[in-house]
Design goal:
37% strand, six-stranded mixed β-sheet, six-stranded antiparallel barrel, alpha+beta, single chain, 26% helix, 25 strands
Length: 370
C-alpha cells in the first residue's frame, strides 16, 4: 500500500510540473501588446527665430475735427462707429452771439456807408468853392482827406461783416473727409475753445496694423521688411504686409516701440480688428518645427522617439533645439525630413518598444516654419 501511495504522489507531481511548464511556455509565446501612440511626420522647414506680436488694425490717417471758434455745443450729430462723408454735419455750437456780431457788423457798415455819402457831398461842395476861389487849398485837402478816411472805414466795415458771417458759418462743423468716427471728445452742453477736438475720423483707404515691439527685438524690424499678417476674426485670411514706420523712441510707459505695418487693400478688414504680425528673424537657419509634447528629457538630454516604419519599434534620438515656434520648438539637429516622431506619451517609451500608430495621426506633419 505504501508503495502504491508513493507512486501515485510521484505521478501527480509529474503532471503538475508538466502543466506548469506548458503554461509558462504558452505565456512566453504570447506577444506583448503594442502601445498606441500619436505621431507627427517631420517636414522640412527653413526657419529662423519667428517673431510674433499682436496689434490692432488702424487707418493710416486719422483726422481730429474741431471748431474754428469757441462756444457751447448744442448738438452732436454723429457717434463712434458711424461712417461720414465729405460735407456731413458733425456738430453745432450756439449761434446767438455770432448772429448778434453779424447784426452789429452790418449796422457798422450801414453807418460807414452813410458817412461816405456825407463826406462825398462835402468834398464836392469844397471843390466847387475852391474853383470859385472862395476856400483855400488846405480846406479842400481836409475835405478830400475826410472823404478818403470815410471810404477806408466803409471798406473795413465790409470786411468786418464778411468776418462776422464767416464766424457764424463756423458754428456748424462739417466733415472734410470720408471715414469712420473712432473717437468722440466733446459732448452736447460742453463749452469748448477754438481748436478743441470734437470727433476723430479714421479716413477711408489705406489700413495698417500697429504693434508694440520690445527693445530686445526692435532691431529685427526695418522699414520695408516683409511680414505676415493674420486676423483672429478672419481665420482663412493671410496677408503680406510691409513695415512702413518704426518709432524712433520708446513709449514712456510701456518702454516698447510702435511699429506700423501697411496692409494691401481688403474690404473684409475692419478697423479695430485684432491682428497678429509674424516676422522672420535675421538669424535664419534650417530647422524642424515640432510640438513640445514630442520632446522629452532623458539623462539630461533632450530627445525624441522615432518610429521605425517597418518594425514599428521606437528609437531614442538626441536632438538639438532652437527657439520657440508658434506650435512648439524648432529642432535644429537630430531628425530628418520624413521621420515619424512620437507626438504624445513620450514618458512611456522605452528602447525597442513596439507601438501602434493611430490611424488618425499617420498623416500628421510638422508645420512648415517658413
Amino acid at each position: 500500500m505504501v508503495s502504491r501511495t508513493v507512486v501515485f504522489a510521484f505521478l501527480s507531481l509529474i503532471v503538475v510540473v508538466a502543466t506548469a511548464g506548458c503554461s509558462q511556455e504558452k505565456k512566453a509565446e504570447t506577444p506583448e501588446p503594442s502601445r498606441p501612440v500619436k505621431t507627427v511626420r517631420v517636414a522640412a522647414a527653413e526657419v529662423g527665430r519667428m517673431l510674433s506680436y499682436s496689434g490692432s488694425v488702424k487707418a493710416r490717417y486719422d483726422v481730429s475735427m474741431a471748431f474754428r471758434i469757441g462756444g457751447k455745443i448744442v448738438e452732436r450729430k454723429v457717434d463712434i462707429g458711424q461712417h461720414v462723408g465729405v460735407g456731413d454735419l458733425l456738430a453745432r455750437i450756439d449761434k446767438a452771439d455770432y448772429e448778434l456780431a453779424v447784426s452789429k457788423a452790418e449796422a457798422d457798415l450801414d453807418s460807414a456807408s452813410r458817412q461816405v455819402d456825407t463826406y462825398a457831398v462835402n468834398q464836392r461842395r469844397a471843390q466847387a468853392l475852391f474853383d470859385q476861389k472862395v476856400v483855400s487849398k488846405s480846406e479842400l485837402d481836409q475835405r478830400n482827406l475826410a472823404y478818403d478816411q470815410a471810404v477806408a472805414a466803409r471798406k473795413a466795415a465790409v470786411t468786418a461783416v464778411d468776418q462776422a458771417k464767416n464766424q457764424l458759418s463756423y458754428t456748424d462743423l462739417f466733415s472734410t473727409a470720408a471715414g469712420i468716427v473712432t473717437q468722440v471728445s466733446s459732448e452736447q452742453g460742453q463749452v469748448i475753445s477754438a481748436g478743441a477736438p470734437v470727433v476723430t475720423i479714421s479716413l477711408d483707404g489705406e489700413k495698417e496694423v500697429v504693434i508694440a515691439v520690445p527693445e530686445t527685438d526692435i532691431g529685427q524690424f526695418k522699414v520695408g521688411k516683409i511680414v505676415k499678417a493674420t486676423f483672429w476674426a478672419l481665420h482663412d485670411l493671410t496677408l503680406e504686409g510691409k513695415v512702413r514706420e518704426v518709432a524712433g523712441s520708446a513709449n514712456a510707459q510701456s518702454r516698447t516701440f510702435n511699429v506700423r505695418v501697411s496692409l494691401p487693400q481688403d474690404d473684409s478688414i475692419l478697423l479695430g480688428m485684432t491682428a497678429t504680425i509674424e516676422a522672420k528673424g535675421e538669424d535664419a537657419r534650417p530647422g524642424f518645427d515640432l510640438p513640445l509634447s514630442a520632446l522629452a528629457k532623458v539623462d539630461g538630454q533632450t530627445v525624441v522617439w522615432v518610429v521605425d516604419p517597418s518594425s514599428r519599434e521606437v528609437t531614442m534620438r538626441p536632438v538639438k533645439v532652437g527657439a520657440f515656434s508658434a506650435s512648439g520648438l524648432y529642432v535644429l539637429d537630430g531628425v530628418r525630413e520624413g521621420d515619424l516622431v512620437v507626438a504624445a506619451g513620450t514618458q512611456f517609451m522605452a528602447k525597442g518598444m513596439k507601438v501602434a500608430v493611430l490611424e488618425d495621426n499617420n498623416q500628421t506633419s510638422a508645420k512648415n516654419g517658413g
